[in-house]
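Record type: ASSEMBLY
Status: queued
Input:
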Amino acid sequence: MAATSPAPSLGRLLLTGAAGGLGRELRPRLRPRCALLRVSDIAPMAAAGPGEEVMEAALEDRAAVHALLEGMDAVVHLGGISTEQPFDAVLQANIVGTYNLYEAARRHGARRIVFASSNHVTGFYRQDEVIDATMPVRPDGYYGLSKAFGENLSRFYFDRYGIETVCLRIGSSFPEPKDRRMLATWLSYDDLERLVVASLTVPVAGHSIVYGMSDNQATWWDNTPARHLGFRPQDSSEPFRAAREAAQPTLDRDDPAVLYQGGAFVRMGPFE
Ligand code: NAI
Ligand code: 15L
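Status: finished
Output:
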């Protein structure tokens, strides 16, 4: 029997960061669910398929971002700098860029945004602590600070204008966990899709913050405050444990990258 496509329940959706690792993964998964999928990035993207529009735009280019939001119901905002980098670069892409996106959403009437935040908003908690999203942020660098800004900005746009946002504090979303730390932080691509679809379709999202992780056996994050989203991860890092532990049989417990949840991000920089 032929597989049936999911109903196009996501309306007219903008996907930023479409040329990136997660954007390339999500694009074909989201397209069948959308009335229209508009994809955007500063880097080249695959040509538009049926039901798609492709628009190159730099997030710091205000006019270009306003054009991106025209006619959109919702946004999955993945675009921007995704690693620790010097402040000026992070400022443009992640702080100015995210402001431009929310202001354009307000002007054009978009109702909901799924914002790719990061576990690096709380990277300076220790790996032997279990935290949840109601606890104070402890960013581990300029990148984590920029994501904390995005979370606060989205809170303001919800309180003031009613634009709903689900902030995804993504752990490590790759085909497999790459090292022992990622046994705790891994988010499979299938669970990423489940998380994004749940965030877009839950009847009332309000302003929510959720850690993006699979159903890993050992974890540092308690997602109880975000259970209303209905996200139920179905994968686990456990099948990768033996291989990752064999590759890293010992850990230096004095290394900040081993001590803190943010891993190597906590000791990147200074850049000047
Ligand atoms: P990526 O770096 O592969 O993709 C980001 C995309 O944003 C790139 O295609 C890049 O060209 C685009 N971009 C960068 N600066 C831009 C600008 N000024 N204007 C327009 N586009 C720009 O990152 P990835 O892994 O796909 O992550 C997607 C999002 O999820 C990012 O926001 C990242 O911070 C976040 N995230 C990802 C995690 C992961 O494990 N992959 C973990 C935590 C957060
Ligand atoms: C992130 O925020 C990065 O975008 C990604 O490249 C990974 O390094 C991830 O965090 C992580 O913490 O493993």
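Annotation: Residues 12-267 form a domain with the Rossmann fold fold (CATH 3.40.50.720).
Annotation: DSSP finds eight helices and nine strands in the chain.
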